[in-house]
Each structure stands twice: as C-alpha cells, then as structure tokens.
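User: Please run a holo structure prediction.
Assistant: Happy to. Please share the sequence and the ligand.
User: Here you go; the ligand is acetamide.
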Amino acid sequence: MSGKIKNLLHFIFLFLITGCNETSLEKKIINTSIIPLPNKVIICEGYFFNYLKCKSDNLDFKEYFKIINTQFKNYYSKDKTLILNELNPNFTIKLSKDTNSKNDYYHLKVSKNKIFLNGNLKGIFYGLQTLSQLIFLNNKNIDNGVRIPCLEINDSNLFSHRGFLLDCCRHFFSVKTIKKYIELLAFYKMNVLHWHLTEDQGWRIQIDQYPKLNTIGSYRKDSLGKYGGFYTKEEIQEVVQYAQKRNIEVIPEIELPGHSTAAIASYPFLSCQQEPIEVANSWGVFKEIYCAGNDSVFIFLENIFDEIIPLFPSKRIHIGGDEAPKSRWEKCKKCQMRMQQNNLANEHELQSYFIERISKILSRKNREIIGWDEILESHIDSPISIQSWRGVSGGINAVKQGKKAIMSPTSHCYFDYDINSIDLEKVFSFNPMGENLDSSEKKLIIGGECNLWSERIPNEEKLDQQAFPRMLAMSEVLWSKEKDSYSNFQKRVGDQYYLLDRFKVKYGIEANPVNIVLNHHTNTTHATINSKIKNLKFCYHFGNEIFKQIDYGDSINIKKSNTLYVQAFKNDKKYGPEVHQKIEIHKALNKNYKYRYPYSEYYSANGENSLTDGRLGNLNYKDGNWQGFFGSDFEISIDLDSITYINDVSINFYQYINSWIVIPKSIYLYSSSNGKNWNKIDSLNNFDEISKRGKFIKNAHFKNIQISSKHIKLVAKNFESLPSWHEAAGAGCWLFTDEIILK
Ligand code: ACM
Ligand code: ZN
C-alpha cells in the first residue's frame, strides 16, 4: 500500500455528506479501522447512505446472509438488517462470485449508490466481514439506513492457516462460549479452531466404545469436588457445522503418547505399568503415558479415531506428541522389546515409531497428522505438519525436511501467559516466517496459531481477557500482507473496543500499564512510573502509607526497603491489576557484576544489572524481575568499587517444578580483594527441596559473616541431583533468581 493511501486510511477524515437523507453540509467523521488491515484500500469522496438490499446471483451466499444477520442481531439487537432478494431490481448491494480468483480474495467497492462485492466463495465471506466492520465502525445505529464511506478494497490472505487453540480440558467451556469464539474468529478472518480435547486433566469427547473415558476420564477431583464434562457427538457436530459455515476448520487434538492420564485412569491397560491411577488434578507433565510396546494400545487408538473422524471433516487431525516423559518406556519390557524388534536406538526413536504408526492409521482413513515439534526428534517419513511451540526452530527444521509448519512459539503466541510476558506489541511483532529460508521452504510455513491453554483460564470472562485484544494482533499478523506501524495498529484496536463491547467481549489490557523505574544514586533511591499506555492516571502507596496520586515521570523518594503499590486508572476505572513491587535497599545496588554463565534471553528480567537493581520478584516468575539460567550452574562476581563491610548476604531462588524451575542444591559464597583470588567464606548444602510441588521462593541467607571485601562471588550448583521428572525437560532445568542482597 502506498504511504499516501495508508495515511489516508489512518487519519480521521472530514467529508461533506452528499448521500440521501442527510443535510448536505453536515460534517461526518469516517472510520476505517478495519482489523486485520486489508491489503489495498483507496478512500474515495462521499458516502453510501441507504438500506442494505442485496442481490446475488448465487445460492451459495444464502447461508452467509443468515450469518451476517446473526452478527447484526448481536451487534444492533435487530433482525434482518441485510435483506436478500435474488431478483430485487432496486438492490443496493450486489454480490458476484469470481471463481477464478485465488486464496481468500475479495474486491469491495462502495460507491454513493451501490456496493459491489466480488470474490471467490471464501473471499465473499471475508468481504462481508470487512463490510460489517465498516458498518459497525461508522454507524452507532442503523434505524435510518447504513452509512459507509465510499472506498475500494482489494484484499486477500497472507497465510492459509490462521489458528486459535482452545484448551477445553484444563477447564471446560460450553458450546455457547465456543460458538461465540467461532463468530469472533470469523469476524477477524481467522480460519482454524484447534480444539484441544484430551488431556491429563480430562477427556472431553464422547466415545461410545469406551464409555469409561466419559464416566471416569471426563472428571477430576479438585478442591471443590468433581470437575469436568465432555461434548456429546451431537454437540461436536453442532460446533463443527457452525464453524464450517463461517469458513473455520475445526481440527481436533487427541493427545498421544503423553498427556494421556485421563485415558489411562479410565483404562489402566493403556499404560506400561497397567496400574490404576486418577485423572490428574494438578498442572504439569505426567509420567504415565500410553505404552508403545502393547498392540492393544494401538487398537484402542484406532477405535477411538474410528469414532472421532466422522465428526470432523478436517483433513488434518492433531495428535499432540509433546512432553512425553520416557521413564516408563525405559523400564517397560514390552516397550524395550518393541525397540529391539524394530532396531530403535532409544526411546525418542520409539516415540517416532509411535507417531509413525498413528500416522499410518490415519492415512488409511484419508487423514494427515499435525504434531507438536517434539515429534520431529527423530525421523518420520509420513507427510506430517509440525506445530512449532518451543521457539520457531522446530518449524524451521520441519520445512527443511519438506514438511509443513505452523508457528506458535511460546515467545509470541501463548496467550495464556500474562501481559507482562506477551503484550499486544509483542504479538504484533510476531513474524511466523523464519529467517534464512528459501522460497520453497517459505511456502511450507502455512501460518500460525495463538494458544489459549486453560490451566489459569477457568471461565469465559478470563478467556476474553487473555484472548483480546491480543487476538487482533494475531489476526493481522496472519492475514495482512502489508505491515502497518504499531501506533496505527493501536489506534485501530482502540476503535475496535466499541465493537468488542457490543459483542460482550470482556477484553483485557494491551500492555502492563505500570512500569516502575528505580534510580539509585549514592544514598538515595527514587521510583518513577511510566507506561506504554497513554492517558492513564496512577495512584500509589509505599508500605502502609496512604494512597497518593502520581503522574507519568513524577518521582517517589524511596527511603527504606518496602513494597510500592501502584494502580493505573483509565477513564476513572481501574486499568489492570494493582502492581506490587518489592524494593530492597542494600549495599550492592547498582554495582557492576559479571556472569560466568549467561542468563536466558527468554527470562532476561531487566538485563545486565537485574541482580543489583533493588527489585525483588514475586510469586509470578514472569513478573519481569526473575532472571532465568537454563542448563547451567549460576555464578556471578560483584565488584563493590571499594572495600565494604558486609554482615549479611542473601539471594532468592524460585521453584516451580511443573515448569522445570528448581532451587539449587548447594550455594557457595566467596570474597576477594582483587576479583581473581577467591576465599571461600561459607556454603549452604542440601538446600534443595527438589520434590516440593507448587510455586515458592526460597531465600538463601549467609548471616553474620562480618567481612570487609571489595569483591563477592556467589556460586549455585544446578543439577547436582536431577529430579525424577527431569527427562520431560529434555536438555535440563532452570535456575531463577532476582537479586543479590548485601547488607
Ligand atoms: C505445549 O505447549 N506443550 C505444546
Ligand atoms: Zn510400555
């Protein structure tokens, strides 16, 4: 799109109205904040202003009218806004099917008297979505007709796979909620609902041949009692058809060989040990997985797919394949026998055998598999697609092997992560196309998905908050061929909120509204507040002090260690949660230090000086204060500039074994006068609580050390005793810390 057209599109225009029923000198604002951004938009002078009377020479579009009218009904609470009359000579909208056009192409021309929309079958659907957005953005009501700026749009999709993963296992969502989401996906031109239906915590699809999957596997015991449910075959068909009419492919995910605790709880013969277990009622990775050496498991799975496949017209079935710990396979006679018989070198190859066998079963049923990137750990011959979640490298490997890839890296696409880790701008910056690929490899990257894992999404309201507005950015990344500036995009998002309100979407925030900056000078510390979001007001209190108002950039004098609480407000309503920042005033503030092993770019906290910046982390390890080290020990040496008396050294570690974050087993403290020759001062051994589940912070404290030193070094040993769940982590586990506190 030319810069001129783009500018035209994003600025607010004042036009003289020349349409019917309006006084000709009335000035009106037009709004073209369409999301996703169409490829080419030319704004013309004037308005269409009339009722929507449609003519179409094609019966295929009949269903679309029903859909659009439902959309209008939800939006304006009015029936039959768009009147279809195939023969109407007084039409104001004409739809024409263009079978020659490619992809999801459409051409929309709005003139003063008539609207013309043509394109292929899907293209017309997307053209109608664009038209709906234009109508909603420009008409608060439509009692006296519909006003649309005159314009011309040529548009088509960038990627063919524009997906949204909904995990209905960790928490169960009603058919009503799923239909609401299907409507929203269609409205923003997304076209895949990846429906996660089986998990450790619940089996969610009716299976007649194995009724215990539903009587046992669909329910777990949680703190409030029995939790769960499943979708009947009728409900599944209802959802699939509802989606199909809106050009959305529903791809079911049936997880194997891991994440299968619920199935094994229903039928223990499916596991290696064949012992009774319960449906999981906590989150994480579980070691009971389908036995790869037992043919009955493959018969079971084939029977399951025989019932599932008729419900889903999708050519592709997602079979999971992620996070399958191999400890049971290592000790299982049948699995080991299978490896011997098939010359498989290790359990990773056994996993490939498993996937290949399932792929063949599905291929006989004319289906292809999609799997998470783990399934490429060893060679697979079948024509599979890979969904890359551990970064984009799995997807890049896949296309280099001639397989299709869908990109959904945790860094940009995990909408269950909170806004501190993945804000709207981060999603908008997502580029599913990996680097250094040739054109044939690029063609194999078919799109991306945003993933709504529901461990921490117990209901529709929270789902709305996590999905929106970030899904608007994902829709634009996957649809739009031209990249807009973030600030223009943000303005368009701002205009879309009104539409989302009308659709009863309880959207969340765009970014962390409160960014607390600490400035340390000799003997003084000040905090200032800034934000990526404009036009906010802030209130704060420090420790038990009373609330005070503060503006962007104002400074708060911090005299002692305590917690700073800040709440942002937008239009006098709370915007985002209250932010709590623990601040520690101590002798190493702002001092330089060196890392022996680098921190991970994924958990970088505030970068190089994070461990002496006075900011302590909270129980959310993604709060921006925890720095993560993967697969290495931890060692830093601090230069205190001059000889300093130190009585106390303390350091926090974090543990959450579900995410493979563990506290170290031993910690060593050293001092030095020159930063080269080190004297060991003390150590803490057997410090780990390796098997303790849940999230907690553990403080390592060297008390009463009474030394004077210029340099201090801390060493923490990771991996001294690897926990039993370690094999799930593959390459290692994490060590997280937030601050080295010297007093
Ligand atoms: C995944 O997030 N384990 C695919
Ligand atoms: Zn086995």
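The chain has four domains: 31-155, 165-393+407-502, 512-583, 587-743.
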